[in-house]
Amino acid sequence: MAGGRASCAGFGLIAMDFSPQTNLSIGDDIYQLASRLFPICRSITGPGVRETLAVMAETISLAVHDVPSGRQVFDWVVPPEWRISGATILDASGRKIVDFADSNLHVMGYSIPVRRTMTRSELEPHIHTAPDQPDAIPYRTSYYQPNWGFCLAHNRWQEAGDGPFEVVIDSHFHEGSLTYGTFTHKGTSERDVLFSAHICHPSMANDNCSGLAVLAHVAQALRGRTTWYNYHFLFAPGTIGALCWLQENEQHLHRLDHGLVVSCLGDSGGPTYKRSRQGNAVIDRIMAQVECDGRKASLQDFSPYGYDERQFCSPGFNLPVGLLQRSAHGSFPQYHTSDDNLSFITPGDLQASYRMIMDVIDILEADYVPVNLSPKGEPQLGRRGLYSATGGHRTAPPDTLACLWVLNLADGNHSLLDMAERSGVPFATLADSARRLREIQLLT
What we know:
This protein has 444 residues and is an alpha/beta fold. Helices cover 27% and strands 20% of the residues.
């Protein structure tokens, strides 16, 4: 049996929308939100995270949670809050080689404060470039080890001269808090679904302004909809934020039936899905059924490297949570560089990712276990208008075949998702056939 429920008594009252959406207005709206989030300087703590949540709160009503610096969270400790006001490298003539005001990728995340005069050889170990992408600024962090550094285009550093250089990083740490946001859409049951996107990356459009913006609009779409599941949306800094949420909600995790971590949803690649640690959870099976721009996801087995699915799937939790992306992280040259900008994502690709997640929700809500009310022999579909009046055809029409599959497998042991996997018939087609069979009282 597929889902966290054996049947849904009120299923007939829930309207599912499996139709493709061609209007790009939702894609434009998602892109607009991603564009507003893009320039904000985010890290795992600090004002950038709170500013990001404030912008997202204009789309959905977010609950904001603060976890104090120094709090023990399983094997981790919430770090001090980091703030940065500016940073520069000046050459011997006073020319700016780097200015943090030009790009918030220019300073390694969580850099300690620096004010020094340095030779090129002294500064070199603190310079990060991407020689294979000489005009791109790489993204680097050092959250849990005191360190500092600058990130700049390789060509820019090659042209910088021998120094000496005036180096300034105006940053500071204080005992503040880690902040994350949540939104919950209440369903009619006590069973839960989780959608999660990391909020800590600065000025990278695909990773992960796209995920934040797509999930915000998915949450918005649920507001006027009656659902069986409760849908929880988590927008938290990577790793430590997810761990804070897990610790805070540990007593409720037994209700979590399905989950998706999302990132990199704005490019034209993929889609790519990494299975949960369980390997055959319902969400893993659903992701094998849905499509994005007419393409089914490339399925990958679980590995303990990636995004926050690592935390949800750690052995002490082992939750049914997978990772959805378009192009997989690290597989596209723009990844973790300044080339991951707003020209790399498109409204159309964002909308296709949004539609894919909405299709996942449609299947979660529509999946149930039907029972054939006329199981002895095949019911006469012709007199009910569900079978061709003339025989002898080589194959059955798709709608008829779907009805036959539903009736044959509706023995109380197979859900619609089970039937889709067994028959190869799309879930939406089977769900529509089951609806028609219920209407003529052949199915309950």
